[in-house]
């Protein structure tokens, strides 16, 4: 038996096979080829395999999600058969006498640039598609495989680290747990693990070897331990621990339907954070009073092109309707930093966390922002939707947002499209600047929601993605707590309400302090709703 320790990001015990996620190497080497005919043939075979895979995906998508959503795989097949695309690849192989991988990668880059430079938004979106199909061919040529396609039974996923875009692609019904070599507890992958309610361990280091793929494993998310080839004794102990955990969870069930109230009668709203419609089940199951943060950017991360107004409208409407009148706070897209989406065509930045992200993208590319706002104002007719804006640093930004909202409403009105006139508006408090001007900001909005993940990173100057800084990362730092207190006082002084939607809201050691600060709401992963309710009810 092999025992490896890491840092737990979500408790629970999982038992199953380990599968090591292999990230494909994106470094394409240019090598000289003597037999260009054979190389061209090698490419054609890879292309045929890719077309077959796409046909299979089309059939699966057709059955699972309908024709409109399956279409993308037909478009991808057509791209691979496109004569210009094929001619470019053949020409590079023959005239430069180089390997097929290099010819495919170069053609993909050239075509993507060409599409991106077109005026038409639809054609611009094809840039990501041509890269996507080319990646498929490159994977086949290099024999690379993430291993996930073979995942027939639920597995414990191991990886060096997982980007949010990779995590969202996993078939969640087949993930028993995560174990990663790197990563930090505030990364979006850790947040996803908590939302999905599955045991996860990060920061296991180099001891977590690729060779362990396929072997029996156990994740103990309580102690942050991974066992490979567990012996009988450990297996038995872990099975018992798992049973106990399930019993504990059953006990919490008894708190369903009960109020979030302290012994002295102070009440607080407990809402849940989601990233996807598929998380709604967990929200309802755990009896959350509403949705305090819907990270709408996951809609963009899951797509290969900008989600249309109709696509967004139907998702927001579904969430609002499912919550049946309970509050649903939808945050406008927070792309950038670790949440990268190819089709946004964002430049590489030296300091992405301090860069072009979130509201900064929305205010400089209003066409993207307006599409989302139109969908939100329309969907607000179907439930209790509030809109929240991320990464705010100034009153001017809020005023500019309001101007854009006024334009959106005017357009909808002129087009005769129904929308809700008065939607509650709030901002995230996740920059020290927003805390310092919170009194002025509170005059402009209905509510604040403190994003402690970013607020902590910007206050302590500690990259939330960098696991090497974990020893310096103090989520209970007095500076962070003082900022939350200051924002709360200023919100209340101007008649606005305030909650926390960052991970700190679920820190049960701080619940009492948050109650003392007079916070109105805490929004946490669905799995933390009942433990938090229990803690609140124990407080004086
Ligand atoms: C936060 O920063 O605390 C937050 C809730 O937003 P995200 O984690 O998505 O950046
Ligand atoms: Mg944030």
What's a concise summary of this model?
By secondary structure, the protein is of the alpha/beta class.
Structural features, described:
This protein has an 8-stranded mixed beta sheet. The chain has an 8-stranded parallel beta barrel with strand order 9-10-11-12-13-14-15-16. Helix 1 packs antiparallel against helix 2 (67-80). The mean pLDDT is 91. The chain has helices at 36-65, 67-80, 83-96, 100-116, 121-142, 164-169, 188-196, 232-253, 280-285, 297-301, 309-322, 359-364, 366-379, 395-414, 432-436, 438-444, 452-460, 478-493, 511-517, 529-538; strands spanning 2-5, 7-10, 13-20, 155-159, 175-180, 200-202, 216-220, 225-228, 269-274, 291-295, 327-331, 384-389, 424-429, 447-450, 497-500, 521-524. The relative contact order is 0.11. With 540 residues, the chain is α/β, with parallel strands linked by helices. The protein contains 20 helices and 16 strands. Phosphoenolpyruvate is lined by residues 293, 295, 334, 430, 451-454, 501-502.
